[in-house]
Design goal:
Strand content: 5-15%
Structural class: alpha/beta
Number of strands: 44
Helix content: 40-55%
């Protein structure tokens, strides 16, 4: 490729290339009118401006060029036919793209000099539809991008940038569209891909940065990086990963931070200098070579970047500059295509990467989703039971598979349709990469067109000559996939090791010449049966293993993929498991690193009887015994005899859901998005509950958990949709059983939603629709580009309880504010939720609220809308809602107004530290349902406290309770070096460390270096809300009750805001029961003598001994705390649950838990003052100073909770 841009990029001085700033921001700053856009119907279509007002676009280009930009992007972000169709301009896609490129080239030529050449990048944006979620097909997307790319190419762009990518399948369609144009024109131009990582750390469909790289590494792109969504601070982790792992030049084109929205205009926090400074590290420390600005960046930002770029040199990195060439200061030639450089070869789902080479394992490919080998799969296919097939896939995920094999080859069915239907569901339902398995390449391609991740193709061979062999390699190249190559040629399947190797050698050479690198090749050396008894089959396994060794030694960089279960075909299930496991073991030793197996049907070698191992190995290597021509020992016969009558045990349980109570089972069905067994569970529930009760209680409980998981980043968008689909199925099943009054069309409430005029973004809006609909609300979804009159008309027709307006563009937020003013004029005052990426809490709760007579709510995400509706409808029903004042009465705590609402929303959005508010904080006082109340409550052996002195304690018992890991690694710092094996480290401990431990144990025994003392006891207590009331033990003797007694102290604890919502107070008996519970407490110390001895060692410069003794003293205090806690458990009656080893004790494998003030669950350290007073620790010389430091230093306090649910948690 003869490219002036690449010549500049890869020149010896390795300049930092500066792209321009935000096209949209700088168009909006010109305050264009509807007429400028060609009329109101085209307002917001920036791409049309090259036709209606090209001088506005030329001004943006020239301003950035004057600021010093090396590259300007064309005004074609949305010039593909399917985006322009929103404005009825689809037929102008080619023309607008070409004009935009010509205009940009003209402007660039005005500023270009030999010393500072200027370039034009043809911009291809993502559009408004996600192919992975089924909004548009791959073929439709590719065809649309071809039209756009043709226009850009003919307009003369110097490079293509596929940017702001939200879906990996969309990137593949765009890349292949551009490649199609290159092929048509007979000329290549540089390629750049820039993905958008959302604030939660993944692309919109859930792909993390490792997945992005694995999916895109196969493509001949020149630059890979990030743009949009966030400022540089939130891009840092992703950019660092790319600079360390990607074999491409890396780019970083951030927003100018996150915007402040004032009056419908975006004001960005990041100044030009701040943007310049933030990218300094990216360039000089990490090696980023391409920078620029996205949303909010003006010419002043680009000027600052250009000035800095002239003074900075990127850190040197290895980057590809061609199929077989790479550079790092100088140019190198690679013997194989696509040198990996820093990249780890991997497959990938749409979520994350899966390395081909697994640590301590081979690559496990789950085999059970295979119509060729499974009757169950065939039956499910015949029934079009996609949910049943998904369930098989999910079960293999749980069993430990790394990749899933997908085979739908079944005579009489439309295999291409089946592959598309199944794979399109698998990609969003499971997190593993897929191996597309078929003898027909057309079926593989059908799967590739819906699988956005990086697949493995299984398989190709020479059985039908070169044509089919190379066709599958072509698919691997076009869609970026690995490929399995079987050792089969025109003569048939290779049976000997030598023949298998010869075919592999031929394939290796052909694949490399075609452009497939060794790291994408998996050789299947064909594990054929050794279980038939036929003579010619006897050496099948031996030949397979020997061929693996030959290939591993002679064809560097390749992998293997062997179908293990073929080996044992025809044997009993139990014999098959054992033989398959032994063959797998032997093949792995030979160098096999991938296998198609059922992970649940493989045994570790340690679990196989030695005799069984020997017989299996004898069979694998054909070690029969003969006397003359008579076979005296046949391992096949022996294996059959050994397993006669033996049944194979399932390694997993299929009844996890079925074992739950039906109420919990229904909830879990929703959370898991599992439709298998759903109807059976609903039928059982209908025997006890009304349909509406099932929906509003059990099913909606599941959706609430889904909301919490999504909000906390633990569940990705496709899984949310999967749960919503399951909810929809459940409601549809229950509807026929509901009375008409129950199935009222309005549901729990009516909700009107629309994307405002001029905005075609509907993904967020549709997600709100799905979530609310599947939570029982009637949603009226008006669609995109809705003028205010349409929203008002819909309000008058449907009378919704709430209106929601959505929009992604900054200009859309101004329309939202204008719409609110129109609502006032029309007498509309229902609450309005505003949602969209350009909104900020400040804009919503100040500008918009001031403009509207009703209440305005900031919709951070779909579940924020749901939360509001779940509060609004009960409040309206109880008469506690006012359109003008908001929530009233007991619901007033939910009002979102003023500075508090802004701070709270910004904290949720940005993860900022909580700021204090003048308004009182609303505290969740409702106890967790995860903690049972009705449990047996123990009676202590005494009330009050006891003191135990050294003579009451066995020092050897305390030694037994020592946490050696904490002592040796934590206190003494004997950590295992990275390059040292565990065996070497254990030998070092035995030789060097344990003698030190024994020496100090002996000194402590004989020299009285420690003075262990303990106060522990039992105090009456009760719980209320998030607080515990602790009483004087004398109230028991006095016959008082919680109603008549006065507590000595009240301790209040934080409650978890999500998950199980635990609070320490939940573990104790509620005060409402008017019976005392028991709160054990303890304080332990090693005495002042421990501090004195340590100080003497330190003063004597005996630092090593000081370290040893100080560590021992600290850990002995912890050991005494463990000992005391164990004593309390025994005295309360839980001795039968006690661990018999220290490892289990330290892992809390006992009843209840022990907490110390300062822990996350009880963070208020000052509460310890009252605890010391209650225990009267002065009796053992223990105190705490004003800085909250305990004395002596080697001391600790705790209170004990006996409830079985109590374990460490953070609140």
């Amino acid at each position: 490729m003869n490219s002036a841009f690449l010549t500049r990029l890869h020149s010896p001085e390795r300049p930092v290339i500066v792209f321009d700033g935000a096209m949209g921001t700088n168009i909006q700053s010109q305050n264009l009118t509807a007429e400028d856009f060609g009329g109101a119907e085209y307002e917001g279509c920036n791409e049309y401006l090259v036709h209606t007002k090209p001088e506005a676009i030329a001004k943006v280009h020239r301003d950035f060029l004057a600021a010093g930009a090396d590259v300007i992007e064309t005004d074609t972000f949305g010039s593909s036919p399917f985006v322009l169709a929103e404005y009825g301009l689809q037929d102008m896609a080619y023309d607008l793209s070409k004009r935009a490129a010509e205009l940009a080239k003209q402007c660039a030529a005005e500023f270009s000099t030999p010393e500072k050449p200027r370039f034009v990048a043809g911009s291809i944006g993502p559009g408004t539809k996600l192919p992975t979620l089924g909004h548009i097909t791959y073929d439709e997307l590719k065809e649309a991008f071809i039209v756009q790319a043709q226009g850009l190419f003919d307009g003369g762009v110097d490079l293509f940038i596929i940017e702001t990518c939200q879906d990996v399948l969309q990137i593949k369609a765009a890349l292949n569209a551009v490649e199609a144009v290159f092929a048509e024109k007979g000329e290549r131009r540089p390629l750049m891909v820039s993905v958008t990582m959302e604030i939660q750390g993944t692309m919109l469909v859930g792909t993390d940065i490792s997945g992005v790289l694995s999916i895109l590494e196969p493509y001949p792109i020149d630059i890979l990086g990030l743009n949009c969504a966030t400022g540089p601070d939130r891009m840092a982790e992703h950019i660092k990963y790319l600079t360390e792992n990607a074999p491409f030049v890396v780019s970083c084109i951030p927003n100018a931070g996150l915007p402040e929205n004032i009056g419908g205009h975006a004001h960005y926090k990041l100044t030009p200098v701040e943007l310049q400074m933030s990218l300094h590290k990216f360039i000089e420390d990490w090696g980023v070579q391409v920078i620029g600005g996205c949303c909010g960046t003006r010419p002043s930002h680009i000027k600052a970047l250009a000035e800095a770029a002239a003074t900075m040199k990127p850190k040197e990195r290895k980057v590809r500059i061609g199929e077989n060439a790479w550079m790092n200061g100088q140019v190198f030639e690679s013997e194989t295509p696509r040198p990996t450089l820093g990249y780890t070869p991997s497959a990938a789902s749409i979520y994350t990467a899966q390395p081909y080479e697994q640590d301590n394992s081979f690559l496990i490919v789950g085999e059970r989703l295979n119509a060729s080998g499974s009757k169950k799969v065939r039956e499910l296919l015949n029934a079009d039971d996609w949910d049943g097939l998904i369930a098989i896939a999910k079960s293999q995920v749980k069993e430990g598979a790394h990749v899933l094999d997908v085979n739908v080859d079944y005579v009489g069915r439309d295999g291409e349709r089946d592959m598309k239907e199944l794979v399109s569901r698998l990609v969003t339902n499971v997190t593993l990469p897929l191996m597309l398995d078929s003898t027909e390449w057309q079926k593989m391609e059908a799967g590739l067109k819906v699988a956005g991740g990086k697949c493995i193709l299984n398989s190709t061979n020479y059985e039908d000559g070169d044509e089919r062999f190379f066709k599958v390699l072509e698919l691997a190249k076009e869609y970026g996939a690995g490929v399995v190559i079987g050792t089969i040629d025109e003569e048939g399947m290779a049976r000997t090791a030598e023949k298998k190797f010869q075919i592999a050698q031929r394939a290796y050479r052909d694949a490399l010449e075609f452009g497939i690198p060794p790291h994408e090749i998996f050789f299947d050396t064909l594990a054929l049966p050794i279980s038939t008894g036929i003579e010619e089959d006897r050496e099948n396994a031996k030949a397979t293993i020997e061929s693996i060794q030959m290939i591993r030694e002679n064809l560097p960089g390749v992998h293997f993929m062997v179908g293990v279960s073929n080996i044992s075909f025809g044997l009993s299930p139990a014999a098959r498991i054992t033989l398959n496991s032994m063959f797998l073991h032997e093949a792995t030793i030979a160098g096999m690193d991938g296998a198609i197996v059922s992970a649940a049907k493989i045994l570790p070698i340690a679990k196989i009887d030695p005799e069984h191992q020997k017989v299996c190995c004898d069979l694998i290597y054909d070690r029969r015994g003969f006397e003359g021509d008579i076979c005296t020992y046949d391992p096949l016969t022996k294996l059959t005899e050994l397993f006669e009558g033996v049944s194979a045990k399932d390694a997993r349980s299929n009844n996890t859901l079925a074992d739950l109570p039906v109420e919990e089972r229904l909830k879990q069905h929703i959370i898991d998005g599992e439709r298998i067994g759903l109807e059976d569970a609903l039928k059982i529930a209908l025997e006890s509950y009304a349909p509406l009760h099932i929906i509003n209680t059990f099913l909606l409980d599941g959706m609430k958990v889904v909301g919490e998981l999504f909000g906390s980043g633990q569940m990705q968008l496709p899984f949310v949709l999967q749960s919503a689909e399951t909810m929809k199925s459940a409601v549809a099943f229950l509807e026929p059983f509901m009375e008409k009054t129950e199935s009222d069309d309005s549901g729990k409430g009516k909700f009107l939603i629309a994307t405002v005029k001029g905005d075609v973004h509907d993904i967020g809006k549709n997600l709100v629709d799905i979530i609310l609909t599947n939570n029982g609300y009637k949603v009226i979804n008006l669609g995109i580009k809705q003028p205010v009159d349409a929203i008002v008309d819909a309000y008058n027709q449907h009378k919704p309880d709430c209106i929601a307006m959505s929009g992604l563009l900054v200009k859309s937020t101004a329309f939202m504010k204008e719409n609110l003013e129109v609502f006032n004029e029309k007498g509309i005052s229902v609450p309005v939720i505003l949602g969209g990426a350009a909104l900020t809490p400040k804009f919503v709760y100040e500008d918009c609220q001031n403009a509207y007579n009703g209440q305005v709510i900031y919709g951070r995400d779909a579940f924020a809308d749901l939360t509001f509706m779940d509060r609004l409808m009960p409040a309206k029903k109880d008469g506690h809602w006012s359109d003008t004042e908001g929530f009233q009465g007991e619901f007033a705590q939910f009002n979102q107004k003023g500075r508090k609402a802004i701070e709270q929303a910004e904290r949720e959005l940005n993860g900022e530290p909580e700021k204090k508010s003048d308004e009182p904080e609303v505290i969740d006082l409702v106890r967790s349902e995860a903690v049972l109340i009705d449990i047996p409550r123990p009676m202590p052996p005494f009330w009050g406290t006891k003191v135990l002195n050294p003579e009451d304690l066995s020092i050897d018992e305390l030694f037994w309770h020592l946490d050696l890991q904490a002592l040796i690694v934590g206190q003494w710092q004997f950590r295992k070096p990275k390059d040292q094996s565990k065996e070497e480290y254990d030998a070092f401990l035995a030789e060097k460390v344990y003698p030190v431990l024994d020496r100090w144990k002996e000194r402590i025994r004989t020299e009285n270096l420690l003075h262990p003392q303990l106060i522990y006891g039992y105090f009456p207590c009760t719980a209320e809300g998030n607080s515990i009331y602790v009483y004087d033990p004398a109230v028991i003797e006095q016959g008082l009750t919680p109603e008549t007694a006065t507590p000595l102290v009240t301790w209040t604890f934080p409650r978890q805001k999500s998950l199980r919502r635990l609070c320490i107070a939940d573990f104790f008996r509620p005060i409402a029961e008017n019976q005392f519970d028991v709160l054990p407490m303890q304080a332990v110390t090693m005495g002042h003598v421990a501090t004195e001895v340590a100080q003497e060692l330190f003063k004597a410069n005996n630092y090593t001994e000081y370290l040893y003794f100080h560590g021992m003293a600290v850990q002995m205090a912890e050991a005494l705390a463990e000992w005391s806690h164990a004593r309390i458990r025994r005295e309360l009656g839980y001795s039968d649950l006690e661990p018999d080893n220290i490892r289990d004790m330290l892992a809390q494998r006992y009843q209840g838990s022990r907490y110390s003030f300062g822990y996350p669950a009880c963070p208020n350290v000052t509460d310890q003052f009252k605890q010391l007073e209650l225990l009267d620790t002065e009796r053992i010389g223990m105190s705490m100073d004003e800085s909250e430091q305990l004395y002596p230093e080697q001391s600790t306090t705790a209170f004990v909770v006996y409830h079985s649910t109590a374990k460490y948690f953070s609140a």
